[in-house]
Automatic annotation (TrEMBL):
Annotated InterPro entries: vWF_C/EGF_Fibrillin (IPR052080), VWF_dom (IPR001007)
Segments crossing the lipid bilayer: none
Keyword entries, A-Z: Glycoprotein, Secreted, Signal
Record carries keyword Nuclease: no
Protein name (record): VWCE protein
Gene Ontology, cellular component aspect: cytoplasm; extracellular region
UniProt source species: Oreocharis arfaki
Subcellular location: Secreted
Domain VWFC, first and last residues per copy: 1-53, 53-114, 111-172, 178-238
Superkingdom of origin: Eukaryota
GO process terms (BP): cellular response to virus
């Protein structure tokens, strides 16, 4: 190929051909690779022989020292070391599994639980006789029991109640109010009681839930000489007349307070 070679020279041609010059002739053979590992990686670019720096396992390249589990192995652990893959699998005893962890790795049958004269399968959940507040589970031949968790209650202790057959306490309904208690004067009114808090134009009623509802009365009747009667909200225009602090009925006559010789009469118009 236009390149001079010394007698006995060796070189590699493309295509992984190993060539040598002997007696003026070129002899070529395929490159012979010595691979001292069980799971070599494919030859890197530009090289002819696979490499043992790493492992090729089930079509997946693994780095040197990598620990992994095969895709179809139950609890099997493999190690890539110097191009070799070593795997370890748990020893699975025949029959029942001695521990719950082996039940996940082996095809053995998990141990059943014998508890208070009854047999329960692995993973079974049950309650104790007469105690529905305790839940038990069978795990690999052993029974673990725990109390049923109860929710947090937002009522005070004296309002909590544990009913027959219940596991958790519940909040009692607060007692219905017997009436309305007013803190300002200490008076308690029964439900439905109507009263005036001091202003005759305002009426209050005690509601069934213990609250007080008040409403004011608006006076719409007007007259030039209204009469205000104590304890009455609106002025009365038909009751009579007021004169010098006194109330006189319609058509009533009375002497004048300024002149005893004058006589007055109340006329409602």
């Amino acid at each position: 190929r236009g390149i001079p070679r010394e007698p006995g020279a060796r070189w590699t041609e493309p295509g992984c051909q190993s060539c040598t010059c002997q007696g003026g002739r070129v002899l070529c053979d395929a490159v012979s690779c010595s691979v001292p590992c069980s799971h070599p990686l494919p030859a890197p670019a530009g090289a002819c022989c696979p490499t043992c720096t790493g492992c090729l396992h089930e079509g997946v390249a693994r780095a040197e020292g990598d620990v992994f589990s095969p895709s179809d192995g139950n609890c099997t652990v493999c190690l890539c070391l110097a191009g070799n893959v070593s795997c370890l699998s748990p020893e699975c005893p025949p029959g029942s599994c001695p521990s719950p962890s082996l039940a996940d790795c082996c095809s053995c049958t998990p141990e059943k639980c014998n508890f208070r004269g009854r047999t329960y399968a692995h993973g079974a959940r049950f309650s104790l006789d007469g105690d529905d507040c305790t839940t038990c589970v069978c795990q690999g031949g052993e029974v673990e029991c725990s109390f049923t968790p109860c929710p947090m209650l937002d009522c005070p202790q004296h309002q909590r109640h544990l009913g027959p057959g219940q596991c958790c306490s519940t909040c009692r309904d607060p007692p219905a109010p017997a009436g309305c208690f007013l803190d300002d004067n200490g008076v308690e009114f029964p439900v439905g009681q109507i009263w005036s808090p001091g202003d005759p134009c305002e009426l209050c009623i005690c509601q069934a839930d213990g609250s007080v509802s008040c409403q004011r009365t608006d006076c719409v009747e007007t007259c030039p000489y209204p009469i205000r009667i104590p304890g009455q909200c609106c002025p009365d225009c038909s009751a009579g007349c007021t004169y010098m602090g006194r109330i006189f009925s319609n058509n009533e006559t009375f002497p004048s307070a300024l002149d005893p010789c004058l006589s007055c009469i109340c006329l409602v118009r």
